[in-house]
Structures are given as structure tokens and as C-alpha cells.
Write a structure and sequence with these properties.
The complex is a heterodimer of chains A (148) and B (671).
Chain A (H helix, E strand, L loop, with lengths): L8 E4 L3 H13 L6 E4 L2 H8 L16 E4 L8 H10 L8 E5 L4 H10 L3 E4 L4 H18 L6
Parallel strand pairs in A: 1-2, 1-3, 3-4, 4-5
Chain B lengths: L2 H66 L2 H12 L7 H19 L24 E8 L4 E5 L11 H14 L2 E8 L2 E13 L5 E9 L2 H8 L9 E7 L5 E3 L19 H12 L2 E7 L5 E8 L5 E8 H4 L1 H47 L14 H90 L6 H32 L5 E4 H11 L1 H4 L6 E6 L4 E5 L1 H17 L5 E12 L2 E9 L32 H11 L4 E6 L3 E6 L6 E3 L1
Parallel strand pairs in B: 12-14
Antiparallel strand pairs in B: 1-2, 1-5, 3-4, 4-5, 6-7, 6-10, 8-9, 9-10, 11-13, 13-18, 14-15, 15-17, 16-17
Helix pairs in contact in B: 1-5, 1-8, 2-3, 8-9, 9-10, 10-14, 11-13, 13-14
The chains are: A alpha/beta (148), B alpha+beta (671).
């Protein structure tokens, strides 16, 4: 039973390698949801708020969930998170921070800004795969996501 | 008290007191002399007066004795006594007549009794010197008057016969001379009477003869006491039968006036007069009837019941002393003024150098070394002042020397201080620089390790992907090499993680909250559960040896530190019964509040005591004792130092190791 199988997953990740690893993990855990990737913070904000290249709502639907890296060029992950959670139209979208940083300060700030989860990206690939599998289970099978 | 007043008082005491004492002695001497002289004079006068009255009375006595002893009078009186019941009989009348004749002849033959004066001449001064008697009566044995002379005078005693008859014989028997208050129809008179009884040859009383004495005679005798002074006065006192005294009428005033007994003669005078009867004379100081203080001489007139008082006011007696008193008083005042002036000058003279010296000494005490104390007086005070001044000069010299030295020392000091400041500033700058560079280093290490991790992970990931996706195309050696690549990536990653943690230990802010170390240890134990039970053939015990305190510190740091040290204690132990003991000592050696983590592990050689704290430095093979990066103790040390503490160890090789550490702060509370 796939509760949220049609929801778009927006991945905000600057590293192609990490993106690839994530996608690989998704496919391995048989997550079939549509995925869209933004490589930097500004791009991500444009998508979320349907600006710039993403005005077409048919083509670029509202994401059901956002996986957000913190270390991004130009506008970093925390800024992106802040803008999303400040706007009433977007603040209901669950944002899962997925990052290599386990800095206490980062964790605190993200939850302050309204992050729904904070996941430390495991260095070990096997454990990363496990983490993604768990994430899938939780967010796409157990949790009921808000509707538009 | 100030020296000036002291000298003044001493001087006064030494001069005024003797003068006053002398004055007092002088006065009392003069007073006693004057009194003595006055007493003597009073006594002399009194004695003289007494003898004068006595001789006057003796004259009267002689007169009356002649009449008393006259045979003719006796014979005729007997006849009159016999015929007294029939006074109008010719025999009584004849006898009376012939008696009057006989008496007249007797009287005319005597120089005194012949001078009975007629009443109308009584107030005439001519008679005062020559007449003694104012009237004369003969009484029969019943007291009735059988004869009186002068017959026609209203002054004659006969008028008062009823009074006389009562107790005349009694009076005569007691005293020849006495006073009587005679009362007639128009007159009350105090009179002085002199009487004698007349006896027959068988010595039976047949009558009496009584004369009324002219008191002017006595008055003349006692009046003149002027030589004793203006206030002097002589008085006659009569001792009455009822033990009281009567003043006789003051003879020099109104001879007829009565002065009653209770006016004056009582108390002391009474007693003195009584004693004057037995002794001869007494001189006393008393108050007279006017209430004045008098010096009085009391004397008794022999053979009578009369006393004489001669008195003079004490005020008058002492008058010369009083005038002298004023004189002496003025003299003393003059002396006093002179003494005050001289005393003042003396006190000034003596105290001035002392005061000057004292002022100088005070100035010295206050630190005024410029004040010249010396005086030019040649005495001891002058000497003292000069000694003090010499001391001052020496002190001044010393002071100047010292000041000079202090000045130079201060200059040196300030120079040194300036140099120190400059050095300090340099040091501070260097220290700041060091701190900054350390921080930069930490930042660098953090960023580098973080950023290095990303590609490293990708390398590892893609090696894994390669192994998974292209397994068929790889031979065994290729697979082995890829695995090495993955393992080494993991190793590098763990190095980077350690480096990250190390840099963080210098970057993170140290919190300060109450941390119960017992609880921290519980968490550590839970976290290390996997390690404790990893090898069933080995037992691991993590115990607390002492009570652990509640400390104000950073909970994360203290947990990491304990965790690291406990893990080391377990890892570096090849025994089968591993024990890691945690404890807390309120005092250890010279330090306070020391934690320790003790194991029974392999121990550390002393030469490695410093080595073990260096990063990535392992003293064993790479994979021995569970492997590891070799950064654990380095991070522990850095965290401890970040909290203000220090770490050291004691170890016996093959016996075990004890890591001691303090964590700074001073708020410890042991449960």
C-alpha cells in the first residue's frame, strides 16, 4: 500500500554524486514517486514558489515532501528552509533535512526554523541505504502528508 | 591641665594660703586678747561695784544696829506691845510720842539716819548724795506700824502697812535688804527696804525697824560704768524666794518701773548667777534683755540675795577688731592682686618655652620637619628643645635621603613598569594573534575535514556502486582492490571525523549547567553496553568507586571525556576480567576536585605519557586493541583544557592506568 506514492519528492542537493546515490537508494527501496532535483538554494526556492522557470504548475507540481541538503552554493539550506516555513502557502510541506553535518548548532537551527526531520547522512553507504529505506517507510507509508 | 594653669595654681597655693592662715591666726590672737582684756576690765569694775554696794549696805547695817540695840526703843516697844489692843489709850499715845522723840534724838545723833528726807524734796538733786533713807517705820510684834517718819508724807510706808504686816518678819529674817511691791490707792511702787528685828533681853521678837532706802544711792554706785564703753550697763538682780530672779528697776532710768522676772533672767544667766553666789564672779557671753549679744560679768553681793550684772555689747568690744579686719582684708586683697600678677608672669615665663617645645613636638609628629623647635633659653627646657631640634634636623636629613632614594627607586620602577607594559602589550598582541590563528586553524580543520568528507564518501560510494553494478566484469583482484579503496576511504573518513571533533572541541562554547556525574556515568554505561557484551569470554565492569558529585559543567563534554577514557580502559586491556573504576576525590595531592578513571589494563610506559596525547599517534599497531584513529585522548585533553582543567596519568606497565583530570570551576556538591 503506497499512501503517498503520487507525491512529488523535491531533492535539493548540489552534489551530483550524492544525488545519484540518493536516487540509487530510492530505486533500491522501490520508491517510485516522481522526483525533481534542484542543485542550489535559489533554484529550489524558485521551484517551491513557482517562479522563474517553474511557473507552469502542471509541469512542476507542488512537492509533497522536500529533502534538503544544508551545504548549498549561493543560498544555503537553512535560508531555503526559512523561506519555505515562513510562507503560509508552503509551510505545510514537510522538509527533511538530509545532510552530512551533525553540528549541534545546525540541528538546533533547523528545528527552530521548522524542519520536520533532521537526518545525518551516514558516511557508510550501507547505512545510508538503510536510512533511505527507513525514510521511505516512514514518510511514504506511515505518515499522512497534507493535501494541497 | 595646661602647665600654665598648674604653675598658677601652685603659686597661689604657696602664697595665698600662708597669708590667709597668718591673717586668721592674727585675728584670733587679737580677738582673744581683746576678750581677755574686756573680761578682766568687767571683773575689775564688778568687783569694785560689789565692794562699794557692800560698804554702803554696811553703813545702813550700822545705822539700824544702833536703833535695834537701843534699850530705850526696846522698852518703849514692849509698852506699845502691851497696849496695842487699845491704841487710843493715853499710855499708848504717850509712849508713841516719846518713842518718836527718842528716835529723833537717836537719829539726829547719827550721820546717816538723820537724813530721812521729806518727800517734796525727793526729786531735788541736792539730796541725792547725802540722803540715804526716804522713810522709817517701827512695827510691833504683830507687824502693825506703831511709828512712821515722816508722818505726813504720802510716801510713808505706813500707807502700805497691810502689805508689810504679812511677811515682814519673814523677809527680815531671811534678808536684811529686800524689795517689795507696794500698792496704795493711787500708786504701785517697787521699793527697796532694809529691816532688822528688835528683840527683848530674853531674845524674843518684840517688833521690827524698817527703812525705805533711797535707791539713788545704789544707782550712783552702779551707774558709772562708762569706762567700759557706750553700751555698758550695770543691773541689780534679786533672787526671789521662789527660785526666780527679778531685775531690780534699772536704777538709771525710771526708779518706779517694774521689770518682771521673766523678761530676761532665765536659762544660762540664771545658772551662772546661782554659781556666782558660791564662787565670786563669772564672765559669760549671753543675750541681754534687748536681745543683743553681750559680754556680761555676774557677781554676788555678799549677805544679800542680790546679784550684779555688768555687761557690754560684744559688737562694741569687738569694734577695734572689725576695723582692723577691714584693714587686713584690704591688705590681703592687695597682696592677692600682686600675687595674681606675679603668678601670671611667672607661669607665662615658665610655661612659654614648654608650650613652644610642645607645639614644636606636635609639628614634628604631624610630619612638619621644617619647623624649628629650638629656643635660646639656657635652662633644661632650652636644652631639651635644642636636643629635639637636633633630632629634627637629623630626621630631616634622613627624610631627604629617603625621599631621594624613593624618588630614584620610583623612577626605576616606573621605567620598569613602562617596559613591562610594552612587553605585556606585545605579549597580548601575540596571544591574541595566537588565539586568532588557533581559531582559524580550528575553522580550517573543521571546514577541511567537512568538505573533504563529501568527495571521500562519493569515492567510497561509487566504488561500491562499481562492485554492485559491474561485478561480472571484475576479476578477483579488481574486487580486492576496490574493497581496499572502500576500506581506506572509510579509514580516511574516520580520521576526518576525529579531526572534525578535535577542531570542534576548540570551537564549541563550553556550557555551564548542573550535571550529576552519576547520571552521566549511567548514560556512558548504557552507550557502552555493546562493548561490554561484545566478547562472552571476557567480563567487563564499569563501576564508580566513590560518590560522584554534582558539578556545574558542560554535560556533553564531560560525557565525551568519560566515554573516551572508559572505552580506552576497556580496549587497552588484554585480561579476562576487565574493571574500569571511576572516582572523585575532593582533594588529591595539591589539587582539589579530581576525577579519575582507573583500569586494570595493559598500562602505559612512562616514556609514552606525553606521546599518547598527540593526535593520530598510536603506540600500538594499527589494528591492535580494536584499532582506532589515535585521536581520542587528544580530543579528551583538548576538551578538558577548554573547560579550564587538566589531565595527567599514573600507570604501571602491565598493571593498569589511572587517568586523573580536573574540570575547573568551583561548584561541587557531593551527594
Amino acid at each position: 500500500m503506497r499512501l503517498n506514492s503520487s507525491q512529488l519528492i523535491l531533492i535539493v542537493e548540489d552534489s551530483d554524486e550524492d544525488y545519484e546515490a540518493t536516487i540509487r537508494a530510492f530505486s533500491k527501496s522501490s520508491l517510485r514517486n516522481p522526483v525533481f532535483r534542484c542543485a542550489d538554494g535559489n533554484d529550489a526556492l524558485d521551484y517551491v514558489f513557482s517562479r522563474g522557470n517553474y511557473t507552469d504548475k502542471e509541469k512542476f507540481p507542488r512537492p509533497g515532501i522536500i529533502l534538503l541538503d544544508l551545504n548549498l552554493p549561493v543560498t544555503n539550506g537553512r535560508e531555503v528552509l526559512k523561506h519555505i516555513k515562513k510562507d503560509p502557502a508552503t509551510k505545510k510541506i514537510p522538509v527533511i533535512v538530509l545532510t552530512t553535518s551533525d553540528d549541534k548548532v545546525d540541528i538546533m537551527q533547523c528545528y527552530d526554523e521548522g524542519a520536520n526531520s533532521y537526518i545525518h547522512k551516514p558516511v557508510d553507504l550501507i547505512r545510508f541505504m538503510e536510512a533511505i529505506e527507513r525514510l521511505r517507510e516512514y514518510w511514504f507509508e506511515i505518515v499522512i502528508l497534507p493535501k494541497e | 591641665m595646661r602647665i600654665f594653669y598648674k604653675i598658677l595654681i601652685y603659686f597661689f597655693a604657696l602664697t595665698i594660703l600662708p597669708i590667709c592662715l597668718m591673717a586668721v591666726v592674727f585675728f584670733s590672737k587679737i580677738d582673744s586678747t581683746i576678750m581677755k582684756e574686756s573680761r578682766k576690765a568687767l571683773e575689775t569694775v564688778t568687783e569694785y561695784k560689789i565692794s562699794s554696794i557692800e560698804s554702803f549696805l554696811e553703813d545702813c547695817r550700822t545705822d539700824l544696829a544702833n536703833l535695834q540695840n537701843s534699850q530705850e526703843v526696846k522698852t518703849k516697844l514692849i509698852i506699845l506691845n502691851n497696849y496695842r489692843s487699845d491704841r487710843s489709850s493715853p499710855v499708848f499715845m504717850d509712849t508713841t510720842r516719846s518713842l518718836a522723840y527718842s528716835l529723833k534724838s537717836l537719829l539726829s545723833g547719827h550721820q546717816h539716819l538723820k537724813t530721812i528726807i521729806p518727800y517734796d524734796k525727793l526729786r531735788s538733786n541736792d539730796f541725792w548724795d547725802t540722803h540715804q533713807y526716804l522713810s522709817l517705820v517701827l512695827l510691833d510684834k504683830t507687824g502693825r506700824i506703831v511709828f512712821s517718819d515722816p508722818e505726813d508724807s504720802n510716801h510713808k510706808i505706813g500707807q502700805y502697812s497691810h502689805v508689810l504686816s504679812k511677811d515682814v518678819f519673814e523677809n527680815i529674817a531671811i534678808n536684811e535688804i529686800f524689795t517689795e511691791t507696794l500698792v496704795s490707792s493711787d500708786n504701785v511702787k517697787n521699793v527697796v527696804l532694809f529691816g532688822k528685828d528688835i528683840r527683848d533681853n530674853d531674845n524674843n521678837i518684840i517688833g521690827a525697824i524698817v527703812v525705805h532706802i533711797d535707791v539713788d544711792n545704789i544707782r550712783h554706785i552702779i551707774n558709772d560704768v562708762g569706762e567700759l564703753g557706750r553700751t555698758s550697763q550695770a543691773l541689780i538682780i534679786e533672787n526671789k524666794a521662789n527660785h526666780s530672779f527679778n531685775y531690780l528697776p534699772p536704777f538709771n532710768r525710771d526708779s518706779g518701773r517694774i521689770i518682771t522676772s521673766n523678761l530676761m533672767v532665765k536659762g544660762k544667766i540664771y545658772e551662772e548667777l546661782k554659781s556666782a553666789e558660791s564662787r565670786k564672779m563669772r564672765v559669760i557671753i549671753a543675750k541681754d534683755y534687748k536681745g543683743r549679744k553681750v559680754l556680761a560679768c555676774l557677781g554676788h553681793i555678799p549677805k544679800t540675795n542680790w546679784g550684779i550684772i555688768i555687761k557690754a555689747d560684744l559688737g562694741e568690744i569687738r569694734a577695734p577688731i572689725n576695723s582692723l579686719q577691714y584693714f587686713i582684708f584690704y591688705i590681703v586683697i592687695m597682696i592677692l592682686i600682686v600675687v595674681v600678677i606675679f603668678g601670671y608672669i611667672l607661669a607665662k615665663l615658665v610655661s612659654k618655652p614648654i608650650i613652644t617645645l610642645c607645639e614644636g613636638a606636635k609639628k614634628l609628629r604631624e610630619g612638619d620637619l621644617q619647623y624649628v623647635v629650638a629656643t635660646d633659653s639656657p635652662d633644661e627646657i632650652g636644652q631639651l628643645s635644642r636636643i629635639v631640634d637636633e633630632t629634627r634636623v637629623k630626621l630631616l636629613g634622613l627624610y631627604n635621603d629617603m625621599e631621594e632614594e624613593i624618588r630614584s627607586k620610583t623612577a626605576d620602577l616606573s621605567k620598569a613598569l613602562t617596559e613591562t607594559k610594552v612587553k605585556n602589550n606585545q605579549l597580548t598582541a601575540i596571544s591574541d594573534e595566537l588565539l586568532r590563528s588557533n581559531l582559524e586553524l580550528d575553522d580550517f580543520a573543521y571546514i577541511a575535514s567537512h568538505d573533504l568528507k563529501e568527495p571521500l564518501r562519493s569515492i567510497s560510494n561509487f566504488a561500491t556502486f562499481l562492485l554492485e553494478d559491474n561485478k561480472d566484469q571484475l576479476d578477483e583482484d579488481g574486487i580486492r582492490k576496490l574493497n581496499v579503496l572502500i576500506n581506506q576511504s572509510a579509514r580516511l573518513s574516520s580520521f576526518l571525523t576525529a579531526l572534525l571533533e578535535y577542531s570542534r572541541a576548540g570551537r564549541d562554547r563550553v556550557a555551564k549547567v548542573n550535571v550529576n556525574i552519576n547520571k552521566v556515568l549511567e548514560i556512558v554505561k548504557q552507550d557502552l553496553d555493546y562493548l561490554v557484551h561484545s566478547d562472552p569470554s571476557v567480563t567487563v565492569q564499569i563501576v564508580s568507586e566513590t560518590a560522584l558529585p554534582i558539578v556545574k559543567t558542560d554535560p556533553e563534554f564531560i560525557k565525551e571525556i568519560l566515554m573516551n577514557l572508559v572505552v580506552n580502559g576497556i580496549k587497552y586491556n588484554s585480561g579476562k576480567e576487565k574493571v574500569v573504576a571511576i572516582g572523585f576525590l575532593a582533594e588529591y595531592a595539591t589539587l582539589q576536585n579530581v576525577f579519575y578513571v582507573k583500569d586494570n589494563g595493559i598500562g602505559i610506559e612512562e616514556r609514552h605519557f606525553e606521546e599518547i596525547f598527540k593526535i593520530f599517534r598510536r603506540i600500538h599497531g594499527r589494528d591492535k586493541y580494536g584499532g582506532g584513529t589515535g585521536a581520542g585522548l587528544t580530543i579528551v585533553k583538548k576538551k578538558i583544557e577548554a573547560m579550564g582543567g587538566k589531565i595527567w596519568l599514573e600507570s604501571g606497565y602491565g598493571v593498569g592506568t589511572v587517568f586523573y583530570f580536573t574540570i575547573g570551576g568551583n561548584e561541587y556538591e557531593t551527594k
